[in-house]
Amino acid sequence: GAVVSQHPSWVICKSGTSVKIECRSLDFQATTMFWYRQFPKQSLMLMATSNEGSKATYEQGVEKDKFLINHASLTLSTLTVTSAHPEDSSFYICSANFRASLVSSYEQYFGPGTRLTVT
Amino acid sequence: QQQVKQSPQSLIVQKGGISIINCAYENTAFDYFPWYQQFPGKGPALLIAIRPDVSEKKEGRFTISFNKSAKQFSLHIMDSQPGDSATYFCAARAGGSQGNLIFGKGTKLSVKP
């Protein structure tokens, strides 16, 4: 199967500090990964698309200097929340595209999410 | 044009009943329509997906019905169980085979024993 992991699963940090969240594809290589943010009882909001070896593409309204994304290898993408503030507290979820074979469609598999609380 | 509209917002079904969740879209360029199941505090899990050249797909108790002319698709959960209680999201893909997903707002399903 296609397994995506995230680390940490939850993190508490103080206002003004930076936090890094890792997203790994465990049993496949992912040229494209995505980062989402989800508020309680709401849908997933796409923040950015991360492509291996190139700069991430950010959605409108997402501050690229605040949410730094690095996709340095085919199995790892990181999201760094810089100078975090309480309003950045949220559930952050990554996903990766996987296809079972060259003739299969890509399917998007999600990680378990990271709960960020900024105090 | 990028929206995916999902209904109902919440749904209560008795154990053994059929749960039906509907989604509608506008953009005819969408080429892939997955459904995800999400439990509280967890990431969404891919449940079942369909492409627009197929009108129905069944996997176990889960069936997607797809109406291309009406630009609508729905998820049917047969013999609903309390363990199916979760939030369900429909989605549609834009922008090619590795494009991003556009999500509906979600449906919270509660299956009563």
How would the blueprint of this fold be written?
The complex is a heterodimer of chains A (119) and B (113).
Chain A: E1 4-7, E2 10-13, E3 19-25, E4 32-38, E5 44-51, E6 57-58, E7 67-73, E8 76-81, E9 90-98, E10 107-110, E11 114-118
Parallel strand pairs in A: 2-11
Antiparallel strand pairs in A: 1-3, 3-8, 4-5, 4-9, 5-6, 7-8, 9-10, 9-11
Chain B: E1 4-7, E2 10-14, E3 19-25, E4 33-38, E5 45-50, E6 56-59, E7 62-67, E8 72-77, E9 86-93, E10 101-103, E11 107-112
Parallel strand pairs in B: 2-11
Antiparallel strand pairs in B: 1-3, 3-8, 4-5, 4-9, 6-7, 7-8, 9-10, 9-11
Please state the oligomeric state of the protein chains shown: heterodimer
- SSE string of chain B: EEEEEEEEEEE
Beta strand count of chain B: 11
How many extended strands of chain A?
Answer: 11
Structural class of chain B: mainly beta
Mean of all residue-level pLDDT scores of chain A? 94
Class based on secondary structure composition and strand pairing of chain A: mainly beta
The most extensive interface between chains reads: A-B, 25 and 21 residues
* Main sheet record of chain B: 6 strands, mixed
What portion of the residues of chain A fall into strands of 2 or more residues? over 45%
> Into which percent range does the helicity of residues of chain A fall?
under 10%
